[in-house]
Specification:
Chains A, B: It catalyses: 1D-myo-inositol 1,4,5-trisphosphate + 2 ATP = 1D-myo-inositol 1,3,4,5,6-pentakisphosphate + 2 ADP + 2 H(+); 1D-myo-inositol 1,3,4,6-tetrakisphosphate + ATP = 1D-myo-inositol 1,3,4,5,6-pentakisphosphate + ADP + H(+). 2 copies of one chain form a homodimer. The first copy, chain A, has 286 residues and is α+β, with helices and mostly antiparallel strands. Chain A has 9 helices and 11 strands. In chain A, helix 8 packs antiparallel against helix 9.
Chain lengths: 286, 286
């Protein structure tokens, strides 16, 4: 039996009879193929990527595993529809904090319709896409003080300016996220963003690939960050970076994806700044 | 006595009684302060940059030396006007090949007027700015077969698509540039683009700085490339990279210049591709 994903933070949500992704209890994520060309384009990307021998193995790990397209009962009750069957990235996490960050200083690209261009550029200017080269699309933080999840409203998230985005990235790794008056303590920054298995390390691996890869242009694609808040036998955070949302991927045609690459490097600088200031904070006893 | 620069390839040209830059015979370049805010903004940038202790010394060499603002007789006969006094980058070259490449996937930036935005985005889409993250703004190549300069028309240059830009970058380092039927031989690629003092080496130094610098955002700024074609006692090409045109520079405010950085890396990939294919060509005896 398929059900609505509990930890989805951006995109169409399958609730109140709407069409959206579903999950099973085997760690698979069922994403309905959108009616227009987007669904088909995303399926085409996964087919191409999966069979592309020029993609290094260590880079594949940053993409959800693809299990083909399958007809399943849609979440909106409209009967069977084709769904992409993907790895459910947050499956296996008990109390995951999750953030979706859309990378790039534009979400439109050459040869889109004027209508789509106008829609995108308006949103790109209203959010931090143009100014920072990325925007936070959604987040969900496990709060340790109340032992529950905190999830800001989508409108609040999309209204972030530079300081809002920086604050969200600090809160994401703090133990006092829910306290609006407190400075986020970045208590988990070194475990989640830092370290040999941390977010920064993973982003830098992706960066090295994007520096020269000319296979695909990842328009309007997101970096999804996840980590675990359940403290079990070990204190492993299982910090994980995955690229998601490939409905607007185009062939690279011998040109690097300078739009994604520039935005990714800007995002990396934000993570590095948080790591540095939290290091200094600890050293100075703040 | 000031005169019209012989080797300027882009921007306003001081001829036919128009306002434009002038040079003296002491290696200085006099750029009239544009009437609107742009001239003032460029002077402000040079003042800030010159006194900014956070700019590493080895990076300063990639910018023209600044000698202040001075009243000189304008080229359009309108009397004395304030001019930026800069290093004349091509002074001392006898037969320089010169190319101006505007870096970035957009030339507009947040908070510009709607009129300026519309003007920029139209040109950014019509040129390779959006698709490649840079556009060739002008070039002048010394042709060895006719022993004279070849300079394509500005309208031709701005109409380049991906292949046109690639071709121009190949012709720039070829001995048979004027021959439209021949494949550019890239005879000087290894001396000009490659080597320990070559263009690529210099671009990579700039890249390393742009990866983390958050001091300035270099909107609508160009990379100028110059090298010597006069064969003297040594065969030194004196290949040189300089950043020019700072009328639209803004404070970085703690964010990297992801727009310039992404475009610069795309440009670097083009140079690397030419170097690799010309290496292979030599090895295979083509």
């Amino acid at each position: 039996m398929l059900k609505v994903p509990e930890h989805q933070v951006a995109g169409h949500i399958a609730k109140d009879g709407k069409l959206g992704p579903l999950i099973d209890d085997q760690g698979r994520f069922y994403k309905p193929l959108q009616g227009d060309a987007r669904g088909e384009n995303e399926a085409k990307f996964y087919e191409s990527f999966t069979s592309n021998k020029n993609v290094p193995d260590h880079i594949r790990g940053y993409f959800p595993v693809y299990h083909g397209v399958q007809q399943v009962e849609a979440s909106d009750g409209s009967g069977e529809l084709p769904h992409l069957v993907l790895e459910d990235v947050v499956s296996g996490y008990v109390k995951p904090s999750v953030m979706d960050v859309k990378i790039g200083s534009r979400t439109w690209y050459p040869d889109v319709s004027e209508e789509y261009f106008n829609k995108c550029i308006k949103k790109d200017m209203a959010t931090t896409t143009v100014s920072l080269g990325f925007r936070v699309s959604g987040l969900k933080i496990f709060d340790h003080q109340v032992s529950g999840f905190w999830r800001p409203d989508k409108r609040v998230v999309l209204a972030y300016k530079v300081d809002g985005a920086r604050m969200a990235l600090r809160k994401f790794v703090s133990s006092n996220s829910l306290d609006d008056d407190a400075v986020p303590d970045c208590a988990f920054a070194s475990e989640v963003y830092g370290g040999s298995n941390g977010i920064l390390k993973q982003l830098l691996e992706l960066k090295a690939w994007f520096e020269t890869q000319t296979l695909y242009h990842f328009n309007s694609c997101s970096v999804l960050m996840v980590y675990e808040n359940e403290s079990g036998g070990d204190d492993e955070r299982r910090a994980q970076v995955k690229l998601v949302d490939f409905a607007h991927v185009l062939d690279g045609n011998g040109v690097i994806d300078h739009n994604f690459f520039g935005g990714l490097c800007s995002f990396i600088k934000f993570i590095q700044d948080i790591l540095e200031s939290s290091d200094n904070g600890h050293e100075n006893g703040h």
